[in-house]
Design a protein that fits this description.
Elements lengths: L7 H8 L17 H11 L3 H75 L7 H14 L1 H8 L1 H10 L4 H24 L4 H25 L6 H14 L10 H20 L2 H16 L3 H5 L3 H29 L3 H17 L11 H20 L6 H4 L2 H9 L3 H4 L4 H26 L1
Helix pairs in contact: 1-2, 6-7, 6-8, 7-8, 7-9, 8-9, 10-13, 11-13, 13-15, 17-19
Length: 437
């Protein structure tokens, strides 16, 4: 297909000899559409326009383009300079990119080999020490709040035990401590292989032993009341349920009686100065031979025995009353239980000859033994009839052996006292019978 020549081509050929070959840019070739469009524009002008109008138009266009170039250089000279700088460095940068790309392409086989080796070593289906250690560290990081809470349990437990010395407040704190201990034991049953849980459980056991000691000391306190004793025993039942098994009274009953007996003995030991005076008086009376002096003496012994009887009567009544309120059943249920126990004892073929006595009965006999031993030692030194006829001493004389009065040669005194107290006992029984009816 032949090339179509435009009207501007001959004109372009006519103008070529006038071009400066050294300064003509390649953009002024005949193939440039702008050059062709301008030459076509020139062919459409008259000769007068070419000589007069067109030079002015070209001058105006040149001035406009020059002003635009000035404005562009003023506004964007920094960007143009930076672009020129980057363009001058583009060749160097491209060569570096090519070198880096070549090095990366050469290292890809090594990277692939290392990735395969890593996947083989740290596969989840295979055992790896490092992977297991990382899993453990990640698990600890996720559960750091829970672990911190668990580690704070022993300190909370000790704070609950040692927070207050008041009876009511300490009981509430003991209940909180028991709840914390139950929570720790439950955690130990859920996670028996955890070293942290075992350590916390060990510290909890030490705190519970401290709490047990505090509760036992509280049972020996001088300000113990029934409500406080019931709360302390309730805490001990939760703390050591094995002590409350077996009989209804359990080992806690024996513990309670032992603590209160220790308190009673401490109170009686406080009468040591009076007892020393009574001993001195007893040694003095043993050396006397005059019967008159013996009957008119015994004031120090009387003072000691009065205080001794007062403390013993008050504390023994309080101990037995609290014990019955805490450990023994109500009267109707207790009666039925005694009947069942009696039937079992009677029907049992391999039982012993006598049933075992209860803790309270044994304790009461022990109190009677201590009381009788002390009175048998000191009461004979009270020789004045007015003192011996008082209600306290006369009642005690009635339950003691007849030898106390027989040694002094006055057998009628003991018989008269026995008769008087039998009359009082009969009146008391009649009053109780009339009230029940």
């Amino acid at each position: 297909m032949a090339t179509v020549r435009s009207i501007a081509d001959p004109l372009y050929e006519l103008l070529v000899p006038y071009f400066d070959s050294s300064s003509v840019p390649k953009s002024l070739s005949s193939n440039n559409p702008l050059v062709g469009s301008y030459l076509n524009h020139l062919t459409g002008l008259s000769l007068s326009s070419l000589t007069s109008v067109e030079p002015q138009s070209l001058s105006q266009s040149k001035s406009s383009v020059f002003l635009s170039l000035q404005d562009l250089s003023k506004r964007s000279h920094n960007s143009i300079i930076s672009s020129c700088t980057h363009l001058s460095n583009l060749g160097t940068e491209l060569s570096l990119i090519v070198e880096s790309t070549t090095a990366l392409r050469e290292s890809l086989p090594q990277l692939d080999e290392a990735a395969i080796q890593f996947s083989e070593n740290y596969n989840t289906r295979s055992e790896n020490v490092d992977l297991e250690r990382r899993r453990t560290a990640l698990l600890l990081y996720r559960n750091v709040d829970r672990i911190s809470s668990i580690l704070e349990l022993p300190s909370l437990l000790n704070s609950a035990i040692q927070s207050s010395n008041q009876a009511a407040a300490s009981t509430l704190n003991y209940a909180s401590a028991l709840d914390l201990n139950a929570h720790i034991r439950r955690l130990n049953s859920l996670f028996p292989k955890s070293g942290i849980i075992k350590s916390v459980e060990k510290q909890s056991g030490e705190a519970m032993r401290t709490m047990t000691s505090n509760l036992i000391l509280s049972l020996k306190s001088n300000s113990l009341k029934l409500a406080g004793a019931m709360r302390f025993i309730s805490c001990l039942r939760r703390l050591s349920p094995e002590l409350d098994s077996g009989s209804k009274e359990g080992a806690l009953g024996s513990l309670f009686l032992t603590c209160r007996l220790a308190y009673l003995q401490n109170m009686l030991e406080a009468l040591e100065p009076l007892r020393e005076l009574a001993d001195q008086e007893k040694n003095f009376l043993d050396k006397e031979t005059s019967t008159k002096n013996k009957w008119e003496s015994g004031q120090q012994t009387e003072r000691y025995l009065k205080r001794y009887i007062e403390i013993f009567r008050e504390q023994s009544f309080a101990i037995i009353s609290m014990y019955r309120s805490i450990f023994l059943l109500p009267s109707n249920i207790e009666t039925e239980t005694r009947k069942e126990l009696r039937n079992k004892i009677e029907t049992a073929s391999d039982s012993s000859l006598q049933p075992k006595s209860s803790v309270l009965a044994t304790f009461s006999l022990h109190l009677v033994y201590i009381f009788s031993e002390t009175l048998g030692l000191y009461l004979p030194n009270v020789r004045e009839k007015s003192s011996r006829d008082r209600s306290d001493f006369s009642m005690i004389l009635s339950i003691l052996d007849q030898k106390i009065s027989g040694d002094d040669g006055n057998d009628d005194e003991w018989a008269e006292i026995i008769k008087k107290h039998r009359m009082l006992a009969g009146r008391l029984e009649s009053m109780v019978g009339s009230r029940e009816s």
